[in-house]
Structure to design on (209 residues):
């Protein structure tokens, strides 16, 4: 239950981070919420980017249960989460006026973590873990669409706006991961019910003896 609550919490934080960035980039925040307060918009935008990175590593640790399945990668993600927390604090306080530099550095770290976690998920899939397969498949689709958008922009195919393509990529991975969450928790419930049934049957057998 604790794992289930944590995974949904981190998934929700990730969705909030993406939503906050869309509000800033599309101007909805200026229109509906903070008006001409550009300082607030800047803090929300950069904090949202860091929150996305933070929630991603925490979600990955919980979803893949890396503490048990890959302790070394779990430690790497935990260490990265502390770095992102410090970055969020610096962005909110804006002490050094380096929000852009902080978020740029955080994304270099995030790309490295993406690679490490996807390799780890592939290894878990090879060992028979369904969660590893679902995780890897979801993010491969995301990066496939993302790269297609970049290639389209570089060669000026103008098939679709790259911004909308990236959003479609995120929505796709969000839906796939949410479906994977439901599948994972359903299997946990089935195993729990099976264990309870076996325990109940054993108790009844002993009672008859």
């Amino acid at each position: 239950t604790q794992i289930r609550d944590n995974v949904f919490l981190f998934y929700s934080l990730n969705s909030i981070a993406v939503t906050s960035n869309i509000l800033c980039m599309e101007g909805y925040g200026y229109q509906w919420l903070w008006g001409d307060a550009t300082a607030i918009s800047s803090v929300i935008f950069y904090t949202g980017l860091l929150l996305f990175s933070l929630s991603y590593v925490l979600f990955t640790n919980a979803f893949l249960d890396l503490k048990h399945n890959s302790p070394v990668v779990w430690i790497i993600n935990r260490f990265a989460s502390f770095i992102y927390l410090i970055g969020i604090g610096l962005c909110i306080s804006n002490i050094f006026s380096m929000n852009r530099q902080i978020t740029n550095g955080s994304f270099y770290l995030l790309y490295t973590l993406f690679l490490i976690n996807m390799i780890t998920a592939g290894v878990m899939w090879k060992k028979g873990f369904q969660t590893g397969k679902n995780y890897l498949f979801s993010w491969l689709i995301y990066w496939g669409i993302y790269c297609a958008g970049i290639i389209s922009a570089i060669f000026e195919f103008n098939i679709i706006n790259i911004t909308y393509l990236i959003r479609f990529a995120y929505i796709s991975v969000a839906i796939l991961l949410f479906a994977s969450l439901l599948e994972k928790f359903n299997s946990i419930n089935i195993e729990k019910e099976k264990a309870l049934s076996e325990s109940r049957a054993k108790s009844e057998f002993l009672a008859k003896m």
Helices lie at 2-26, 28-33, 38-63, 66-69, 71-93, 99-126, 130-154, 162-208.
